[in-house]
Amino acid sequence: MSASKPLRLFIDIGSWLITVAITLVGLAALTFFIGRVLPIDPVLSIVGEKATPEVYQKVYLELGLDKPIWQQFIEYLGKLLRGDFGTSFSTSRPVLTDLLNFFPATLELSTIGLIIGVVLGVPMGVASAYWHEKWPDHLLRVVGLVGYSVPVFWLGLVGLFVFYYLLGWVSGPGQLDVFFVGVVDRITGSILIDSAIAGEWEIFFNAISHMILPALLLGYYSLAYISRMTRSVMLDQLSREYVLTARLKGASEFRAVAGHALRNAAIPLVTVIALSYGGLLEGSVLIETIFSWPGIGNYIYSSLFAADMNAVLGGTLLVGMVFILLNMLSDVLYRALDPRSREFAK
């Protein structure tokens, strides 16, 4: 039996790698072909509308747009395998360089949003399940429903109008005030970490004042999803016999709920939180656009309207790879938390 473990592990890893490869190729194909059928001329975005037909034709041939679309896609995949995402027409820099510059800001904002969503969403879901069909349950479900159903761009605009324009409690769009931009050297790409390393605490707190509102909005969006899923999982766990047995043995309500039910609910919640994190990374496009946040979402949005398909494709593939990594991480954590899923231990 032990001799089959390495073979089983090798087969599982191979299957996972094949799945990842197929997913990435499918994602690349989908975004590539959609980009080619959009009524946007990438040549005009480079040469401008006043370019001569000769200049237009020269750039058209240089981009390889005269070739069959399937051949263009094969050549694009070949470049991806070499780590070449192409050059951004908008910034005149390699797309990979742009992605490395913009992604840390998105990662920072989404991570803070996820922390807010988990810290508030999980207790809300537990409380909602514990007081099932009572007024706390109804109140918490309404709070979650608003965050889950109201468009995030509308909440962003209202938040800016109320808390920035009317009340002045937070700073406006952007990552920093204009006179702080470029003062701190980029080390990690996170403005909070880099300013703390440099000891620039005025910049650190200025960055927080700019980050509060978009992070809270992302956190609210994440909270709505996490609290609803936590409630669903906890309702199932609280109805199990082991919870009733714990209560009959004299365990306190806190121990029965938090020590037993929530502990077992944490296993499926790992996947919920991982998917929520991926959703924040993807859904930050609107928030970053509204708040002029220099992240990957704003980069993709600007590139799309500039017909910069190399940048759009590169950003989309990056988000797809992050989703795959998060799913892999959630699977590993699921196996670690649930001994029943460890098939290799047999």
From TrEMBL:
Highest taxon in the source lineage: Bacteria
- According to the record, the signal peptide region is none
Where, subcellularly, is it found? Cell membrane
Protein's name in the database: Peptide ABC transporter permease
Major place of residence: membrane
Family according to the record:
Belongs to the binding-protein-dependent transport system permease family.
Q: Which GO terms describe its molecular function?
A: dipeptide transmembrane transporter activity
